[in-house]
Fold this sequence. Notes:
This protein is of the alpha/beta class. It has helices spanning 6-12, 16-28, 37-49, 62-77, 124-128, 138-148, 168-181, 199-204, 230-233, 255-267, 270-293, 319-324, 328-340, 359-375; strands at 55-59, 81-85, 130-133, 152-157, 185-188, 210-213, 224-228, 299-303, 306-310, 350-352. The chain contains 14 helices and ten strands.
Amino acid sequence: MTGDDDGHAAHRVRHPDVVAAIKQEVERGFGLGGPTTLEAEIAEEITGRFPSIDKVRFTNSGTESSLHATRMVRAITGRPKIAKFEGAYHGSHDALEVSTSTPLDQAGPSDSPNSVAAWDGMSRSAEEDAVILPYNDRESVELILREQKDEIAGVFYDAKGGLLDVPHDFTRFIREITEELDIPMVMDEVVTFRTGYAGAQGLAGVEPDITYFGKAFGGGFPVGAIGGKDRFMEIIDNSGEPTGLSQSGTFSGNSFTLAAGLANLRALTPELFEQFDGLRERLHAGMAKTFDGAGVPAQILSEGAAAAFYLSGKPVRDHRSMLEGPDHELTGRVNMGLLLKGYSLRGGIQFTISQPMGTEHIDGLVEALEQVLAEA
Ligand SMILES: Cc1ncc(COP(=O)(O)O)c(C=O)c1O
């Protein structure tokens, strides 16, 4: 995020605990054929952190995790369809890469969005088996789920859908309605884990049936993890009678990923999240004041270590308002201006605060934004 020299940037992506953990694995040996005690150690870290999780399985990515979670809920319920929210990305596979970024002229009614495959080459059943839900529209979500509850194997849910204005109350509503209708709720915490010590579920105070993770859980190495209550996880436990569903992967749970992930998770303490909160609030307030001062309408969304801005006068609460609301041309110019000052924004609008950052980095960014807006 900062325009410092390469030496500083390198330090920022090499947390000393992660580096030490990997060095230790190099010495201990790698490319092992079976599980190691590291798997138990990181599982304990995860189950201690997330009350919704009794057991954990590792994969190599968020995509792989959501793919296996899809099979799990289908196998558990015997139902064919997967419900997900319009605009939410859960990984690159046919069951879930549907209605992730549908153009508005193909999206259908906002209260019952069309199911639209994201890419050519996807199976026809991808669209047939997907049920698309609108964010922040309780009435429509309830209607769709009630109508199709006997066909829906699970509701996949990202509590922020990128970074949308989705209140915790909506997350609690999704938990309540899925519980009432007996539909498994699968929470995607691949990105939202950065919003709080126990992810978005911790902030909303909900316990999904299955959760999956990626990104930060590997401390920079390829990772995915699926966790949940015993009664959901046992479908992939073939240590006794065959369950009918197996989940495995050659590099799942490899020692570099586990060691780096464990060191990273241990470093992400509640105190560090408090530090993120302080910096993020400073960034949020600084951006709000700057956009306001420049007379540029903007929506700023932030939680935990994550922040984003949309150059729009209206709240950005779903996929449609994200496409329609913001001034994309001005956003592009602001991004280019910031890039020329040494600040590269993820996806053009997003920030993640990390451990080595301090107030000087936040203030530097806000100052750069002020200059860019003055020039624009
Ligand atoms: C919310 C969300 N879920 C799932 C994924 C897929 O994770 P991976 O890229 O590790 O396959 C991503 C990736 O960006 C994501 O943002």
